Amino acid sequence: xxxxxxxxxxxxxxxxxxxxxxxxxxxxxxxxxxxxxxxxxxxxxxxxxxxxxxxxxxxxxxxxxxxxxxxxxxxxxxxxxxxxxxxxxxxxxxxxxxxxxxxxxxxxxxxxxxxxxxxxxxxxxxxxxxxxxxxxxxxxxxxxxxxxxxxxxxxxxxxxxxxxxxxxxxxxxxxxxxxxxxxxxxxxxxxxxxxxxxxxxxxxxxxxxxxxxxxxxxxxxxxxxxxxxxxxxxxxxxxxxxxxxxxxxxxxxxxxxxxxxxxxxxxxxxxxxxxxxxxxxxxxxxxxxxxxxxxxxxxxxxxxxxxxxxxxxxxxxxxxxxxxxxxxxxxxxxxxxxxxxxxxxxxxxxxxxxxxxxxxxxxxxxxxxxxxxxxxxxxxxxxxxxxxxxxxxxxxxxx
Length: 399
What we know:
alpha+beta, 5-stranded antiparallel β-sheet, 5 strands, 56% helix
């Protein structure tokens, strides 16, 4: 039976609804205005273990660290699991209100300035961590991976079990890297007692190292590990084998988050050469990843499946990303673009079998996916430009 994205999307929307309160849903905990509350009253909404009921608590959030939220209700202090957290509302400074508004409008560079201001004004440690996590995403969205990584390590020092581990800056696509990242990568590489720092270093060094080791000087533009490097980089003595060895060690970490992400980065090194057995093994491993940090793994396996001609299966996996992991905007846009390319490949095969040049519904699905990138991801200019070029090409073919 053949599934197109129009059939797949309703299923994934159900998955997204079921994921409310899971790690990805928690990441979008909202900051509401203070109408109807006292100055010190916070509102916390949690769902039952079965996910069939939402309970609202009112009190004062005392702490939010790791997988626990401590709420003071009257003279009683309750411990609530972050895994069941749907949302919370708390008092915000004017700077945070402005930052949240800019965030919603995708003006991330401006939002970052106000989040930084809000962190300086905020006295509550738990909320400063929440604001710090927002700044990490903002830095990633504007391409400042060095600042994002530095802030992420600061967040870990305050909360090693942070629920915002999915904010870790890693390279999954053909990222544009700022030259200021170079020195930080070397520092992270040398932090042998800091696995997250090493993971970040491996991820971005992998991109430039692959470029240096490819015969043409750069990897395939559609590869998840492509990139370019200047001649004066300080990482020339770090080889691809060095990076793979370190990722191999990290993939055996007792921290399942580190282990899963390192393994997916290893897959990234062979996404375009993996055979059917390897891809099948990767697919079988994905469900064992912590759900909140699975987006990158889905993307890499989606690339491998597309290269192997498994276009329908690739699209099914890729379309999880924009729905279940919307904060990963570069991955979401890239997934939509590749899913559209999958539909075009299926359309071409379908028309070849029927010996017709007429467009079919698969072409329409491809156009819809490309249009999604153009309309909803203006903060991803390279991917948006490629999607627009695809649309223009399809329009010319129909003339």
